[in-house]
Amino acid sequence: MKVIRDPEKLNRLLKRLSRSGKSMGFxxxxxxxHLGHLSLIKQAVKDNKVVVVSIFVNPAQFGKxxxxxxxxxxxxxxxxxxxxxxxDFVFLPSxxxxxxxxxxxxxxVKGLSSRLCGVTRPGHFLGVATVVVKLLNIVKPDNLxxxxxxxxxxxxxxxxVEDLNFPVKVKVMxxxxxxDGLALSSRNIYLNKQQRKExxxxxxxxxxxxxxxxxxxxxxxxxxxxIKQLIGHKKQAKIDYIAIVNLKSLExxxxxxQQGCLIALAVKFxxxxxxxxxxxxxx
Amino acid sequence: MKVIRDPEKLNRLLKRLSRSGKSMGFxxxxxxxHLGHLSLIKQAVKDNKVVVVSIFVNPAQFGKxxxxxxxxxxxxxxxxxxxxxxxDFVFLPSxxxxxxxxxxxxxxVKGLSSRLCGVTRPGHFLGVATVVVKLLNIVKPDNLxxxxxxxxxxxxxxxxVEDLNFPVKVKVMxxxxxxDGLALSSRNIYLNKQQRKExxxxxxxxxxxxxxxxxxxxxxxxxxxxIKQLIGHKKQAKIDYIAIVNLKSLExxxxxxQQGCLIALAVKFxxxxxxxxxxxxxx
Lengths: 283, 283
What we know:
alpha/beta, Rossmann fold, 3-stranded antiparallel beta sheet
């Protein structure tokens, strides 16, 4: 496994491999790897001859009041995990090499970026879209692996890949969960004991919604009210949003129809903001 | 020479050629080819094994009140010229294949895009940057050829290529001019006889500025005043801007120093807006 910090060097090396016809899989991460990331990496290893993982805590996707500085960093452990998973290249750029002085170019996926998490995290998806375009140009993968947990991110990246004609296939892997249903996230380590216990309410809320729909409920507002009630019982939980939206446009829907929908929510526990979602198909 | 309308088909064909190690040159155009375009194409043919020319009147870079609909289109002649120049592929996409329903992604080169032509053409360079990213992803050239006449465009594209890590070399070719100095432009055909005659004032203004600098003038405002006087004598000329700017930031400068500068101007003759510029080096 090679750890490479210079984008041009990585690009040169990968270009050579790509010319020899080897299919390439790419998993972009912020590090602090957990079993969710590993499921993407394992799938990439299964599907491709060459696998690249990037570890980059992208400052452009953090708001000024967000947790950029204290975002968990476990580089040594991350590299060990990548090695064990038989990753071929880890791309480990510095902030300055990604955003040198005079950096000016930003990629905006309009509409999609301002909904759901985009409301409380303005600029977040601008940063995500921008760094993904950069990474795709450096790595030029055949297959890109993303996690269903960050569903808005994966929808935005699919949109930009299609809009900007990137010749890459986007593969979205299922959310990996703890035994009690909590979706794995690098931010879970911020939770204290009480918060960790209460955090299962995200998963429970999604199950509640799913079960209501299975029992015939089609009114989005009624489902949302029931979830609000459920979360209301948790002392440390503060709802950011609960939304039932169209899967493509991310616009709120009133009635759940046969096309299904996306149920997504964000809840804060102290300073820690957690997200989760269920896709509802074939209603 | 192959004329291809489908981005994915072109991408597939070119990928095969690129894998066989052939260097690729790309000349993006809006069609209505003149000797300026041909100088780019000839240089591309000289430098590369495979040459791609795109002909696409990109709606995203035209303002609502601009000349998108009446922009000159001479497809048959354009294709003939490309054939004569030994172009290998002409990419000829439709508006709908480039911007299908639901299209949402835009590339913004902040700062640079809002100066000079960006003041009277807001959104123009957003459209340029966006289509160039799309074209670079479809063609994946080694070398990209642009004209010095559209200097702001070439500076913005160089910036986005660097910022977004596109592995392509940008080559800017000198402005091609008529015998009387008028820079070639597809829009010159809009000019009536009187306007055509007066339009040489752009070139004359740049020469005046150059000569003043050569004789020791360093005050940008004084040079601009002299140009204003000169253009003031032309009955149909209406100044959009005359600017003396830093070559990298495109910000106005007060004093011309050893690093040189860019003198750029835009002048309207009736509805036709013409631009021209001189680079001043080694003062």
